[in-house]
Amino acid sequence: MDIKITKLPKSEIEIEGEIETTVFESYFKKALQNLGENLEIDGFRKGKVPENIMLSKIPEIRILEEMAELALGEHYPKMIEEHKLDVIDRPEIAITKLGRNNPLGFKIKTATIPEVILPDYKKIAKEINASITPEETNPTVTDEELENTIIDIQKSRAPKKHIAEGVEMTEEEKNKEPELPALTDEFVQAMGPFENVADFKEKLKENLILEKGNLAREKNRLKIVEKIID
Predict the structure, then answer these.
(1) Strand order in the sheet with 12-19
(2) C-beta atoms surrounding 132 within 10 Å
(3) How far apart are CA 141 and CA 199, in angstroms?
(4) Are the C-beta atoms of 48 and 42 separated by less than 8 Å?
(5) Mean pLDDT of the chain
(6) Which backbone phi and psi does 54 adopt, to 5 degrees?
(7) Which residues pair with 110 in a beta bridge?
(8) pLDDT tens for residues 53-85?
(9) Most exposed of 36, 122, 140, 189 (fewest Cβ within 10 Å)?
């Protein structure tokens, strides 16, 4: 089977070709059998109508159309596989030649995965990496940042006030900051494998530095991806 593949705008292709006569004719009996399964004729059970009777009752064009559907249904996937076509859409099929003892002519239009030509991504990554600041490469955590994080942790573990049903809270009570638990060895040991407050602060600072580094690397990676997409 000879086919011609033409690239069209918007990542579409057109496949034009013919299925040779002997191959196309080989689908005749199967097409007739398919159409005869639902043929109802007095004196015959459904699906048991003799071939000569079916031929007199079923229009030849209907048999040819069924043959074309069977032939293309089998050979279209083979075309795709043989020519390594990345199709992503249901094909639009047009029959250009249809007749007994003739080849089956067809044109098929379908969409394919768009061809993407990557830029010099290594060069882009190098340029972006060159713009990284020392603060991003070697992040630090200030005493203020550490203390603010500790306060947030204390707030998250502060006891919640339970208000009895029907009791109205004053504005002062609503706005009052919760009483924070004391930062003691017992407090930090209850949260994890920390020896004491000093050990907790040291490990917390290490985690904050690690988190800053991860955020900086992710930000840098997104810059590279956006530049490649552009």
Answers:
(1) 3-8, 12-19, 104-111, 92-97
(2) 14
(3) 16
(4) no
(5) 89
(6) -60, -40
(7) 13
(8) 888 888 999 999 999 999 999 999 999 999 999
(9) 122
